[in-house]
Amino acid sequence: MNKILIVLITIIFSLGAQAEYRAYQYLVKTTDPYAVATKSNAQYIVSTLNPQMFKSYHGGSFVTLDLLRTWICPGYTGSRKTVCEHPYDKDAKI
Questions:
Q1: Is the pTM of this model over 0.85?
Q2: Residue from 24, 74, 29 nearest 49 by CA
Q3: Rounded to an integer, what distance in angstroms lies between the CA atom of residue 90 and that of residue 94?
């Protein structure tokens, strides 16, 4: 009886749960000697990967990162959904 009650309470509280994730904005510079030369080897990138994961996934020692800002996004990132905008960027458009 107690197990059933615990399961029911867990289900009731789970229905109101909301997903969220953290977004990061980086200035990414490449130091790869074999990279294609462009006017600027720096790019602004928004990702859900934290700095350590981003660096290990996208080049390791050939990439330098500058973390510019971070924010929390509501929702779910599955099915290749785009990362939400920074809240200050939304205010600037108004």
A1: no
A2: 24
A3: 7
